[in-house]
Amino acid sequence: MQHKLADIKSLAGFFIICMLINALVFFKSIPVFFIPDAILLAYLTYKLKDLDQKISPLFFVGGVLFFGFYLFSPEPSDLEYQNKFLVTLKPFIYICILALYSSNAPKKSLYPFIKGVVVFYPFLLIWNIALFFIKNHPPLSRLIPEARPFFIFENNFEITFYISCFIALVFIYKDRSLKNYFLLAMVILLANSRSGLLSFILISPFYFWTLDIKKRLIAFSAAVIAAGFVVVGRNITQISGNVDRLQTLNLMWSTYDGSFLELLSYPFGHGIYAKLPTYLCIKLPDFAEWFVGNSNNCDPIMLQAFYTRGLFQFGFYVTLLIPIMFFLLVRRETGTKLAMLIVAPMACVATSVGGFSNGLAFLGVLMCVYAYVQVHHPNHQPLHR
Questions:
Q1: How far is CA 191 from each of CA 122, 233, 346, rounded to the nearest angstrom?
Q2: Contacts within 8 Å (CB) and 24+ apart, 172-180
């Protein structure tokens, strides 16, 4: 009894600390973009001494693509604004990391952390909504759609990480409680993220399949409520007229005159240094200002969605190859079915934001792989398929 009481006090203290961190980030706008990659770098450095797995050949593919685009991409004629090309190259770095470290899971079980994220994160979102209300006083009818709650990072990335935790909890640790699914549905409803909703829709049928008929109907009802709220709250049926992913996709598509054959004629895209043509990017000056800090900077990162800027910078073939390589590297450890589930959230969020180039989304994938290794291969030996 005393042991359980101590655990409760410890969890309550941790939750209060998280609330204070969220308030600090919310009111002070502290830069946090570097944190996921800093955590990743620290872990890789710590585990370097334990590297003992067979290197996947995809390590060399990722390395060639990294240096190929870095060294041989055509230089733009206008160098006034340098592209954020390191962000663009991150998928190749993550591919190399998976190829080298996929079997090198931490010795301490990830289950308490994963369970804690699934249980506590929804309440942090509620706390963040309360902070938003205190600061902005919006009408209650628009509170959740306008708040777009988060903990530390942009909520599209956090939802991706949260869904990765749910996948690990349900499909790796076999904790299939309806309570976990209700918490997931609650997060989707509160976060009001379209890419999060897409991931939610993709993984939910696999969860339903693990339940009996009665529980399946209950879970399905929760899914409909959450999905319906996002559809109505984000006005999904009318996004084509907004500054949104469809507009940036259409903007990129214009550079190829709307021709798929023209797109294929650039097997390696325009490279990582080329700007969007000025006559196109000036159509969204506010978007450029928001993403790259200057309305005259035509950095392709303003296209926002990974697939959109990937088609422009990498070309069709390499953009298609990136998710395939992620899938093959995850499958190497987990098998085909689970690899599809693990990669799905990152693939879905890539329709909206960075996806394969985001450190938090990648940490979610790596965490799922490590959870599988801990459960099925406790000696941390690589599984060769």
A1: 9, 11, 17
A2: 172/338, 172/368, 172/371, 172/372, 172/375, 173/111, 173/114, 173/371, 173/375, 175/115, 176/207, 176/210, 176/211, 178/211, 178/215, 178/218, 178/219, 180/118
Nearest residue to 333 via CA among 371, 378, 383? 383
pTM (2 decimals)? 0.91
For residue 374, give Cα distances in angstroms to 101, 168, 326, 378, 380. Answer: 14, 11, 20, 5, 7
Residue 357's identity, in one-letter code, is: S
**Which H helix or E strand runs over 65?**
helix 58-72
Neighbours of 72 (CB within 10 A): 10
Q: State the sign of the Cα–Cα–Cα–Cα dihedral 232, 235, 236, 238.
A: positive
Tokens of 372: 């599988």
Return the structure tokens found at 74: 């055509």
Residue type, position 228, single letter: G
CA distance 235 to 254: 26
Distances (CA, A) of 181 to 221, 222, 360: 11, 8, 22
Give kind and range of the element (H or E) at residue 205. helix 194-208
- What is the number of other CB atoms lying within 10 angstroms of the CB of residue 77? 7
Q: What is the full per-residue pLDDT of the chain (385 aa) written as tens digits?
A: 444 445 556 667 788 898 999 999 888 878 888 899 999 999 999 988 888 788 899 999 999 999 999 999 998 776 678 888 899 999 999 999 999 999 999 999 999 999 999 999 999 999 999 999 888 877 776 777 777 899 998 888 999 999 999 999 999 999 999 999 999 999 999 988 888 899 999 999 999 999 999 999 999 999 999 998 888 765 544 444 444 677 788 888 888 888 899 999 999 999 999 988 888 888 777 777 777 778 788 889 888 899 999 999 999 999 999 999 999 999 999 999 999 999 999 999 999 888 999 999 999 999 999 999 999 877 654 443 3
What is the SS3 assignment for 310?
helix
Torsion on CA atoms 4, 6, 9, 15, rounded to nearest 10? -80
Residues in the chain: 385
Q: What percent helix, strand, coil does the chain show, rounded to 5?
A: 70, 0, 30
The tokens for 243 are: 């500054």
